[in-house]
Every structure is written in C-alpha cells, then in structure tokens.
Amino acid sequence: MSEIQTVRDFLSALEALDVDRALTLADPAIVYQNVPLPPARGLPAVEKALRTMGRYGTGFEARLHNIAANGPVVLTERTDVLEAGAWRAEFWVCGTFEVHDGLITLWRDYFDWTTFLAASVKGLGGLLRTKLTPRPQTTAH
Predict the structure, then answer these.
(1) pTM of the model
(2) Is 27 annotated in the active site?
C-alpha cells in the first residue's frame, strides 16, 4: 500500500469513528500533535486522545482538497468537520504524516486557532437555532 493510501485509509477510519481500525495503521511509537498543543507520544497516548474525541464527538469528516507525498512524508490540505450532536464546526487543516513500513509514525495537524474558534461559535449558533426554533404543534384526532 502506498503512503498516500495509508493516510487515506487512516482518515477514512476516523470518519467512520472506527478508532480500532485507525490504530491498526499507526506505529507503536506514533507521535500525534495539533500544533501548538503538546504532542501525544506512543500508541496508548494517541489512542486515549482519539477515544476522548470520540466520546464527545458524534461525527467527523476530512474533506481532502490536496494530498501529496515525497517519500514517506504525506501532506494533506483538507477541511475537517467536527460534529457533536447539533453542533458542527468546519475549518481548514494542513496535515503532515510520515509513513514507514505501512504505518503512520507521525501525524501533525496545523490549523488557525482563530478560524477554529470562529467555526465553533458558528456551530454554537446553529445549535442554539435548533434548540430555540419552535416545533410545529401536532393535534390529535
């Protein structure tokens, strides 16, 4: 399997909320970082991070705009969509993956925190609209 296909399969597993399948594509010494947050080092730490996100999230989508590889390094430009019930946030992400022997050894995502916060507020607005919109009355016959 190519490095690009490994990354595609990894993101696809995350979209399916299948953490177990995603972890089969990760090296035991994987490093995962949302820059500038501290990195999660090793499979147990990455698993904990992914399961925590899965506990609070109800959906994830990675819309790939561009993907390119230079040897073991795979770069992605994508829009990530996070969902938690009626809350939804879409934001631009650039990711760097390193793939060795078919396993991801590094996963580093870069995104603009201001854009993420704006998307989160927008998602909160959608949530509030859902909660505040009157539901049609039904009448019994």
Answers:
(1) 0.82
(2) no
